[in-house]
């Protein structure tokens, strides 16, 4: 029994390291986007791409490849080699960190397999985890490829959003798997109403994060750098100016602002009401110690979102300033809010049927 418990805790620690590395990876993706670095590497060389250019000749070769892209020709035509090296670093480091995650999981898998720490019930979740990781890498390249042809100077916002949501899915799955190994049933709470609230709030948050990614992809913060109104109006003009109608939901900056902000207000209200209900539930010690997390994080997330929008007027191309810091922290808070909801979903179960 002791050996089985030790194995579960070791595998869970390995998974939590993966959770931490994935959070960093998503944050690096945010930096890559904010610095406009995502299209600096025009090829996907899984092995050979692990090393950056090591001499001037190699740097010029990579720079010349970048010069063939629409982003260089239409936007960054005045870039020097030094400018290119800056954006190249962030995209390279983002990809390097992804490779390191792969190494950590692959090496850990082999070690745990040799040491016989894996139990039968762990195998299928591990296979799904590896498949999700591979899928995320493929989606990332599809996203980058969308900005390398035609007249695109950035990746397509919808593909950026897809890449972001897939990353969050991988993050949540890994976290859930770790919780299955760490938290026993005696620490959970049975409450069908609280779990239903949790499910609806989680669905609303996923939609809001999706629209946050569309905000980022469209660089929409500067389209309405005001609060609480959207450019002086509670309901922005021309929300359905695009044709066909459904295109507005992914392309119209005014409508994207309206939906993203509206979902933020809805989440604030829902999580506040849900938390009030949780405080009426005695629950377990673990439940009582952690039920405060979602409401505190959602308040922080809302404040960071407001400051991000208001500071967008101070954006200076090529310079990291207040807006970039706020946008990065806003994204981080969004991930923490998501993980806090997944945590509560795990420890609050449906009432047992009698």
Topology summary:
Layout: H1 2-34, H2 56-67, H3 70-74, H4 81-114, H5 120-145, H6 157-182, E1 189-190, H7 192-217, H8 248-251, H9 253-278, H10 285-290, H11 293-311, H12 322-347, E2 348-349
Parallel strand pairs: 1-2
Helix pairs in contact: 1-4, 1-6, 1-12, 5-6, 6-7, 6-12, 7-9, 7-12, 9-11, 11-12
Describe what you observe in this structure.
The chain has 354 residues and is mostly helical. The protein has two domains: 1-182, no CATH class; 186-354, no CATH class. The protein contains twelve helices and two strands, in the order ααααααβααααααβ. The chain has helices at 2-34, 56-67, 70-74, 81-114, 120-145, 157-182, 192-217, 248-251, 253-278, 285-290, 293-311, 322-347, and strands at 189-190, 348-349. It has a two-stranded parallel ribbon. Helix 5 packs antiparallel against helix 6 (157-182) and helix 6 (157-182) packs across helix 12 (322-347). The protein is flat. The model has no long low-confidence stretch (mean pLDDT 91).
Quick overview of this protein structure:
With 354 residues, the chain is mainly alpha-helical. The protein has helices spanning 2-34, 56-67, 70-74, 81-114, 120-145, 157-182, 192-217, 248-251, 253-278, 285-290, 293-311, 322-347, and strands spanning 189-190, 348-349. 69% of the residues lie in helices and 1% in strands.
Total count of helical runs of at least 4 residues: 12
| Overall number of strands | 2
Radius of gyration: 22 Å
End-to-end gap: 30 Å
The largest sheet has its strands arranged as: 1-2
Give the class from helix and strand content and strand pairing.
mainly alpha
Order of helices and strands: HHHHHHEHHHHHHE
Major sheet: size, sense and barrel closure?
A: 2 strands, parallel
Mean pLDDT figure: 91
Helix content: 55-70%
Question: What is the number of domains?
Answer: 2
Low-confidence stretches: none
In terms of DSSP E residues, the strand content is: under 5%
Give the overall shape, derived from the CA principal axes.
flat
């Amino acid at each position: 029994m002791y050996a089985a418990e030790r194995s579960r805790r070791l595998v869970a620690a390995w998974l939590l390291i993966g959770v931490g590395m994935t959070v960093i990876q998503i944050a690096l993706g945010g930096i890559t986007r904010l610095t406009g670095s995502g299209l600096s590497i025009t090829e996907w060389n899984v092995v050979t791409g692990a090393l950056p250019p090591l001499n001037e000749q190699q740097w010029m070769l990579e720079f010349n490849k970048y010069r063939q892209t629409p982003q260089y020709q239409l936007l960054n035509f005045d870039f020097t080699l030094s400018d290119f090296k800056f954006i190249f670093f962030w995209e390279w480091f983002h990809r390097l960190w992804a490779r390191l995650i792969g190494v950590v999981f692959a090496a850990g898998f082999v070690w745990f397999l040799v040491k016989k720490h894996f139990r039968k019930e762990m195998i299928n979740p591990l296979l799904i985890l590896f498949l999700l990781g591979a899928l995320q890498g493929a989606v990332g390249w599809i996203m980058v490829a969308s900005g390398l042809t035609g007249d695109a100077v950035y990746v397509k916002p919808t593909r950026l959003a897809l890449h972001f949501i897939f990353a969050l899915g991988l993050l949540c799955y890994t976290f859930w798997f770790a919780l299955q190994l760490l938290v026993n049933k005696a620490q959970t709470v049975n409450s069908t109403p609280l779990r239903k609230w949790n499910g609806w709030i989680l669905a609303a948050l996923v939609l809001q994060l999706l629209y946050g990614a569309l905000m980022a992809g469209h660089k929409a913060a500067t389209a309405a750098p005001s609060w609480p109104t959207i450019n002086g109006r509670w309901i922005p003009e021309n929300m359905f100016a695009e044709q066909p109608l459904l295109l507005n939901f992914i392309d119209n900056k005014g409508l994207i602002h309206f939906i993203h902000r509206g979902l933020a207000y809805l989440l604030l209200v829902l999580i506040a009401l849900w938390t009030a209900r949780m405080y009426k539930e005695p629950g377990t010690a673990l439940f009582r110690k952690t039920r405060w997390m979602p409401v505190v994080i959602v308040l922080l997330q809302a404040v960071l979102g407001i400051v991000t929008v208001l500071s967008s007027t101070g954006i200076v191309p090529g310079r990291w300033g207040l807006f970039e810091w706020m946008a990065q922290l806003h994204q981080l808070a969004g991930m923490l809010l998501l993980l806090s909801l997944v945590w509560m979903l795990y420890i609050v179960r449906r009432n047992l049927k009698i």
